[in-house]
Amino acid sequence: MAEFGVVTPSVEVAGVKQPTATGKALSVVALRKTYGDVVAVDEASMEIAAGEFVTFLGASGSGKTTTLMMIAGFCEPDSGTITVGDRDVTKLAPQKRNLGFVFQQYLLFPHMTVSENVAFPLTLRGVPKDEIRRRVGETLEIAGLSGFGSRRPRELSGGQQQRVALCRALVYRPPVILMDEPLGALDKKLRDQLQIEIKTIQQELGLTVIYVTHDQEEALVLSDRIAVMRNGLIEQFDTPRELFERPRTPFVADFLGAANFLPGRVLQNTDAHTVVRLDQSGGLLKARRHDLASGTPVKVAVQPGRLRACAPDDGFCTGTVEIATYVGTLVRAGVRIDGGDAPLLRLEVPAGRGPVTGERVGITVDPEDVNLFPTEQGG
């Protein structure tokens, strides 16, 4: 099969042979979109491999949905190029790009059965009826909907309707599937369940998926790589682990992990560490080596889950626990550091091991979990 732009081996899923994609699936180069004086997307560039799950992550107005809509063809870029496989689709109408699309609103036809909804893209393409029946049956089986073909959308739960919408995008085997916050209307438990199902189907079929969400946890669970966007710019395009543990900007550190920020100044560099003197407490903190000159003002960034409470004299700073909240498996604590009136230092520790309100504690951290940003980078 060459439906993904390359001839590749196949894998068997639910008894059905499926193509395994390799190579480049999609690339965008210097994509830009403005609305009057507002720059919605500013010179966005990326290359996405076949079989990769990529998420555009950002707050409202960051440019993630506009970027997706330009790739889909629903929004015309001011400049830049969009290539699917080796085909330039920048000027093509949406229906000529052969991309799958799953919306947050399921957009199922209420007068059609599940099977008819899933078959609709094949019917439009003039696929023979026997082939339509075969493909629809295979696709519903993959999504766990084999017994639902004769039902109407109103007879399905929200999660089942979303599976049907996914099947409709899968059935004609597009080279890339675009998903615009498809789980946003569902409750958390169902959303978590469908995240696992979508990721499982994507991996088993080797699908190339571009997914839009504002939910950081959802992005971390689903993605091979994440493009963190702000004000139309891609702040960082990287794996979930790199984004969380090695953010390149203070914004990424804060948006993806709600990092604590402490102002300080580089004191010295050793072979393994950069030592920082904190402005507020005067304490010394070791970070992994960052090759910053002595005297450089920095923001120290540490995720709440990487900080640990210890004896008052054993940490890089000391403070008083002002709040400790039990949230199931975790205790979230806020510590007022001695020596100033900066915001509370936030910790997340396993339940049963957490500090209690009013307790005096020291704070310690593994140097490998400390990121430093020169103050000139801003926030």
Automatic annotation (TrEMBL):
One of its GO terms (cellular component) is ATP-binding cassette (ABC) transporter complex. Keywords: ATP-binding, Nucleotide-binding, Transport. InterPro entries: AAA+_ATPase, ABC_SmlMolc_Importer, ABC_transporter-like_ATP-bd, ABC_transporter-like_CS, Mo/tungstate-bd_C_term_dom, P-loop_NTPase, Transp-assoc_OB_typ2. GO terms for molecular function: ABC-type quaternary ammonium compound transporting activity; ATP binding; ATP hydrolysis activity. PROSITE patterns: ABC_TRANSPORTER_1 (PS00211), ABC_TRANSPORTER_2 (PS50893). Residues 26-256 form the ABC transporter domain. Its EC number is 7.6.2.9. It comes from the Bacteria. PANTHER family: SPERMIDINE/PUTRESCINE IMPORT ATP-BINDING PROTEIN POTA, SPERMIDINE_PUTRESCINE IMPORT ATP-BINDING PROTEIN POTA. This is ABC-type quaternary amine transporter.
